[in-house]
Amino acid sequence: MKVAVLTDTSAGIEFVEAKQQQITLLAAPIMFGNRQYHEYQDLPTADYYRLLRLAKSKKLVPTAPQISMKIVHQTCDELAATGVTDVIVIGPSLGISGFVNTLAAYAENITSLHVWPWDSRGILTTMGDQARLAAMLAVQGTPPREILEQLKRLRDTTHSAFVVDSIKPLLRTGEVNGHGPGNAPLLPGKPILVFESSGKMRVAGSALRLKGAMSDFLDDLAAALAEAVPVKATILNADQPETTAQWLATAQKRFPSVKFDVAEIGPSFGVHVGDGAMGLAWSQDYQSLISVENEK
């Protein structure tokens, strides 16, 4: 048995890292009008946000279509030709993408190997860390079902929260409604979005300033830090270097013993949250699950 891990760039993983981690990575497609780009291949994150700002004057709305099953099928056949018998395909949350369901329905057409679709119930870092964990376990020779058990353990600890300038992109795609908690009217300010444990994204309220949103996110992080497991936290930004530096300084001052990573909100999720978005994601450190596995 030889197990491979397949995911796409909406996991916040770039191609250099994917090669190092032995992750098969597909580029998420991004559409600007009639032109198609590919995340991290011919569309770096900085270029995407530059195009996004220019597109506003032309009323062009970018979209992120699903990766085609033809490309997934071809990739699986290529993996099978190298001796791979099983592939775990880690997709973005069903709350924002139908990719995993589409793959589950299509998988019987892929006969060259066994396909294991997996709903990460997240995006960016929370999705990417599941791919990293799966790849490390696969290298150790862990069977697919055991890898999925460990992925569930990690997924159950994931949290993501974002503050955005507008929820118009999400209203357009139908991924959230325009109301706050309990279907109450959304208060003035910057909307706050969170991923629920089911993977569905919802509006959790609003903040008058980015600083207030960051304070709320750190309050939520404090509860996770009280647990007896190591925590990995990441500050996410949509091409906002100055705000990111401010958030990082605030987070490190409040929690000096925690290492905060920084990552960009790439184009495939930037389509949903727009420029100006900031976020905080955290979960159990996936490397601690590798250690647990090694001790068994």
TrEMBL record:
It comes from the Bacteria. The keyword Iron does not apply. The keyword Calcium does not apply. Pfam families: DegV. Keywords: Lipid-binding. One of its GO terms (molecular function) is lipid binding. May bind long-chain fatty acids, such as palmitate, and may play a role in lipid transport or fatty acid metabolism. This is DegV family EDD domain-containing protein. It comes from Levilactobacillus brevis (Lactobacillus brevis).
